């Protein structure tokens, strides 16, 4: 695929930044000042020399033609990826023809590009030959899976025991017991190779300090862990779809085996959550022809942005395949047929009543689901005491915002965008309330990210 | 969300109570205590949890906010909107810090961006209003331009978020629309029943259009206004002040409030033809004379011996600040309030230049010249300002003279922008940059070509002298914001690292190159900003 002729928007470039500091530093380098000998090729490479504080300018080169996402190389010592120079150069390129004219690449850039192309070629050849080799040891794989299942069963059984002990002596004691008890149990679940259980158990620890009504929330979450344990322990008796859902909730790896769906996918939202080790990026897509919703997950080690970056408001023609599990929205991005481009398309929406019903229905396939993605049509953000809600413009129904959504700056962007008038809002709707992620004002205007 | 009622309304509450107390103490209903009780409780709770969640219904809608008034200004071009988002994202404390490097300081460019956008009459993109309000909250100097650009929707927002309450105070009328000029009944109603801020906004708006109408409106309720309000209202007469305001101001000289009297006197003294100005001219004139008995003419000063009630009524403050002699304090006020036009007649038909050049006896020179400076600024008298400024290349212009640099800056502001720029350029050419900072601050942006050249030349000289650029960081920062972007091309040669001279400070050349790179980058950025906003 070549991206010749398709220039990115500045937003697209900035979405590649690993963190806010890089975004800022990069945007300052997006002016012509420090750059020299910048250029670009028809094959989709951009290069340039950036004057830094040292005497020798940094050599920056980017390959944007790769369908898997852009690749960068820069001679600067930064460990950020992409570094501010790569971002600045891309911004310069996004800004227009003049600063990054087409031309032949200098030697230092050409060498890297050539090396990359060669490696990609080798990989492709090897991949074609190796797909059979990958499943070359089915017996070994089966044995490994069995061993893991045994460990998870032991973990789930132990967790059942701990939950029973907790309920025998009462949740009231959990407030005093503190975080340590849960951390230890979570560590046991990690040992049992059940990361999904471990994460749920870890979250239990935070509930007793989460304010009024915590016993109800703790009981709910304990009950759902119990349900998941039981689902695992009796997985042979579950229907296929639910069985896959349980396996993925436990944390077993799966691959996107669903049929490839080709569509024009509208990027509804992109947001990152991070802990000390890992940044998780969620990208919600809406298929403009199929009407399907898909969730792309990508990960980056701490300090590095996940490689996939699809800014809100773009549309890309691509294939997407679903992961197993009934009602699961997670999917993998397959082949892209055209680079992402801005679009004025707006997805259709529903009322608050329909949104709540949709969450209820989704629980049938996945009772552990916290929320479903929905688009609300014609809702007005309205203050409700200390809280906020999205109220139908016509009608008496409203969805309260989640506590986390209320404390984010995106709330005020949403309120400002609405100005008391109806807006279209995409977000996640669940038992905790509604988390707005993207909004469109009435009439014209682009999608406004709220996260 | 509202929970739907369960068929057995208390089933869930029972489960929660059992869970809280423990099944050992309180088994859930229908379950015998024992080893199975916790599992039975978890089973039942799992069913209830999923059932409760699946049965969630929307809440009742709360009172929806009143829609914000429509912004009729044209929307910002997309590239300019992106630029604004970027400028607003560059907030202090968002990383960075330390040495500035070659990257522009985006936050410093925000005031200029806002001024241009306001001049072009664009509407702010609604989704950027929160960031704009946050920026204005942190920087009071940004507020007027930011709030003007943010428009009425920002005040609408500020009513919903206490963090932005300043926007309601700072925007006259809290964003309510003022009645149109023809709507006399509406004007009347708002003036008599409006909130204070709305009334100030109304009065200022009318004053800007029709000075007489505003004064007449004020006169209708003047006697019943509170003292602080009278002061604010009176202040609005500063706009479009004219001779026909005199009777009203004369009357205000007898006001009960001392601050109102002082403001009225100040306004009157800015009207050289007013009776108050004439009275002050007589008083000041009595204190200053030319002594011809010496070899050459000398100005002699005889300061007043008392501050009588007439002087006090005309706004002279009787009590001197601590550390100042009473007589010189009174004298300064008299000369400041006297019309400058009387002095040539009083002092032998001399021009302002000749008067300023006269020696002054007994150390009164500083006092007298300072008072003339204040009078020139107050009366916007360019002729006197020019005389008091003197020649920019004169030795005393750069050092301690009768007129301080701060006073010179104020005097400069009474001159036309071209003359101002030329004076400062000539000043810099003679005295260098170290004293020029204050003077540069009153020059029009972007700097006129001769001024820009003078600054760049002076920076270049400082570099060649081997000093460090941070000694000039103030001027450098100003140059980034004020130099004409068209000058960027001329600066290219300065971006290279020069050979280190014998007496240069170590590494200074590299730092200078960096500083000039930042200057050029910033100028380019400003050019791009202007272009995005449709300024050719």
UniProtKB/TrEMBL annotation, chain A:
Keyword Zinc-finger: yes
Sections of the chain in a coiled coil: none
Statement: the UniProt record of this protein carries the keyword Ubl conjugation: no
Region listing for Disordered, in residue ranges: 117-146
Keyword vocabulary terms for this entry: Metal-binding, Zinc, Zinc-finger
Domain SWIM-type positions: 58-94
Ranges of biased composition (kind: Low complexity): 126-136
InterPro entries: Znf_SWIM
Superkingdom to which the source organism belongs: Bacteria
A GO molecular function held by the record: zinc ion binding
Protein name: SWIM-type domain-containing protein
